[in-house]
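Please decode residue identities from the backbone states below.
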């Protein structure tokens, strides 16, 4: 099947737009490879420092650079359930590396914050910016020049994008993401949300709520809904940066361990000084980024990736925007329904076909670029294969079958929706992102008067006081990157869900974010320009009629144009101190819009790189 013409034209657009920045990136990576810091360039003293605490049997190999040395960047901590299993991974990776004549060292630990723990709390204001801290920490770890390959241990929301942003600046190094797998299913996500709504209505108390939360979040592994963390996994497979089928194999199982072992062996095989080196920059190109975007649309993934994918792409010199995503969304059929888009969790999704089935379907129908390089042998085709253990406990890959449950995965000829899960909405209120995959047909268009808020607490209070007992578009502004770091407003979903259950038409419009777990409330999120920089969302007043329509892509305030143009934007003053938020003033000050990735670090990097002219490393005198 030939490549879908829209996928082809969007890719061409991206290649054209990224010409200069991509060329600059590739030139810099070539310089890194040829002249950058690496083991042969280290002095005896440099090397002695690096191996001083190494196991004696590794020392010689490390000093003589006999085999590749894998730099592990780990996001381990034991508060985040998804990352807790990483505790022993570095030791295991070292063993697997030795099996094939290589070594491994932990190059750095990076922070991993949990958006579940910080949801609705001040710490959430650090979340998007933590991605930059992770990228910089990754770069710091890799800057020691000790490594010929990189293993990234990270799963959750900001961690994978941050790790990739950092690693891409060392794109001459072959790099693999190694996941740890999902938690076993607990209380179904839908029931958890139902108990939350009962709590909001005062029908159950805190004890019952706590019981439900703990029955849902009950062990090690990634949360089971298809939120940002699991969307990260999906993307890493579509990018070809993981072992095939690695995403959703249950945590701490023999199959999981076998895939990790095979992954480490493969990484050594494609290490920098090997016969077949596969640098990261050769894998993450414009086509791979488009493949990841196709995966996002086909699976109804997290809206957060409309920020993360542009940021990751930029770290590789590739410029994408929401128009690209929207054009892909128009043609890519949605063939997977995972919570919040449907009742199935990722374990169920995996059991009935998982990502290999989705990738194979899309690939066979011409929605994926096949001429991409991937870490696994066999290119993107190999990601259409399932991993299993044979009766000798050896890892084997076999072509995936058709879906075993068409409520969860559909054949491409009979999709859930003809278009993808995420839409661009735009109009006189700006541009925003809309997750259509979880919205019922009768809620795809909402026209109602606005009620304007500056904080999520104020929304909850108004709901509690019955002030939202009507059709309403709740506008929460002052939540963009420049204002307060762009928190997720997921805690608003239960109260707004209660209003919907009462029969009211409800929508949310915000310059902030929602979570990958948010779904059922119609919402335009990431609306830009954000209120803090005077965007139109700052001009909305209580009672203005707003129309939000996923079918036509409208985000409009229905008001006389002259009155609208003359209206002044409200002044936004968000809370910026306490809980360490004051340390992130520089990020708030410099963050570019969400559509450009909202990364101050990348924004300033690009500005500086632009001044370097043809010399990718040194400033020219101009
Ligand atoms: O996937 C995401 O985008 C999230 O940031 C995610 O981490 C989430 O917010 C919490 O885990 C909430 O989970 P609940 O729906 O259980 O509150």
């Amino acid at each position: 099947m030939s490549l879908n013409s829209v996928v082809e034209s969007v890719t061409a657009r991206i290649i054209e737009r990224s010409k200069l920045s991509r060329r600059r990136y590739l030139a810099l990576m070539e310089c890194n490879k040829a002249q950058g810091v690496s083991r042969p360039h280290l002095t005896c003293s440099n090397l002695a420092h690096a191996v001083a605490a190494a196991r004696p049997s590794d020392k010689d190999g490390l000093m003589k650079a006999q085999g590749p040395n894998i730099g592990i960047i780990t996001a381990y901590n034991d508060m985040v359930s998804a990352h807790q299993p990483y505790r022993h991974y570095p030791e295991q990776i070292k063993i697997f590396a030795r099996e094939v004549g290589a070594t491994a060292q932990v190059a750095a630990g990076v922070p991993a914050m949990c958006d579940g723990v910080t949801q609705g709390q001040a710490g959430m204001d650090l979340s998007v910016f933590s991605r930059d801290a992770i990228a910089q920490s990754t770069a710091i770890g890799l800057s020691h020049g000790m490594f010929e390959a990189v293993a990234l241990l990270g799963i959750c929301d900001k961690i994978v994008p941050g790790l990739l942003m950092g690693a891409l600046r060392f794109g001459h190094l072959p790099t693999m993401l190694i996941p740890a797998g999902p938690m076993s299913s607990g209380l179904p996500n839908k029931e958890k949300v139902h108990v939350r709504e009962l709590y909001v209505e005062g029908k159950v108390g805190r004890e019952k709520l706590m019981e439900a939360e703990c029955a849902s979040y009950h062990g090690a592994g990634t949360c089971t809904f298809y939120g940002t963390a699991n969307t990260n996994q999906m993307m890493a497979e579509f990018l070809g940066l993981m072992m095939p089928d690695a995403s959703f194999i249950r945590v701490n199982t023999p199959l999981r361990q076998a895939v990790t072992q095979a992954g480490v062996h493969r990484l050594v095989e494609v290490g920098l000084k090997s016969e077949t080196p596969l640098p990261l920059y050769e894998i993450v190109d414009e086509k791979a980024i488009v493949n990841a975007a196709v995966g996002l649309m086909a699976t109804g993934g997290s809206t957060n990736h409309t920020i993360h994918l542009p940021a990751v792409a930029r770290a590789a010199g590739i410029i994408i925007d929401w128009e690209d995503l929207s054009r892909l969304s128009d043609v890519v059929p949605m063939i997977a329904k995972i919570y919040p888009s449907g009742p199935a969790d990722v374990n169920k999704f995996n059991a009935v076909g998982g990502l290999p089935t989705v990738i194979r379907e899309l690939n066979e129908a011409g929605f994926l670029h096949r001429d991409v390089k991937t870490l696994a042998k066999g290119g993107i085709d190999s990601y259409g294969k399932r991993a299993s253990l044979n009766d000798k406990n050896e890892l084997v890959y076999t072509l995936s079958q058709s879906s075993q449950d068409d409520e969860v995965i559909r054949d491409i000829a009979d999709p859930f929706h003809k278009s993808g899960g995420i839409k661009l909405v735009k109009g006189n209120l700006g541009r925003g992102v809309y997750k259509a995959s979880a919205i019922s047909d009768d809620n795809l268009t909402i026209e109602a008067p606005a009620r304007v808020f500056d904080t999520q607490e104020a929304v909850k209070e108004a709901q509690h006081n019955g002030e939202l007992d009507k059709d309403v578009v709740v506008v929460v502004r002052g939540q963009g990157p420049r204002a307060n770091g762009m928190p997720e407003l997921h805690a608003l979903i239960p109260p707004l869900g209660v209003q919907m259950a009462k029969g009211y038409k409800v929508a949310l419009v915000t310059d902030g974010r929602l979570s990958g777990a948010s779904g059922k409330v119609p919402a335009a999120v990431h609306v830009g320009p954000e209120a803090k920089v005077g965007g139109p969302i700052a001009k909305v007043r209580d009672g203005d009629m707003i129309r939000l329509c996923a079918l036509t892509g409208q985000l409009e305030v229905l008001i006389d144009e002259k009155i609208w143009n003359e209206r002044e934007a409200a002044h936004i003053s968000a809370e910026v101190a306490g809980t360490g938020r004051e340390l992130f003033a520089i990020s708030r000050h410099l963050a570019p819009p969400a559509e450009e990735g909202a990364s101050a670090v990348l924004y300033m990097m690009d500005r500086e790189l632009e001044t370097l002219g043809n010399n990718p490393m040194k400033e020219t005198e101009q």
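Observation: Residues 590 and 600 are 5 Å apart (CA to CA).
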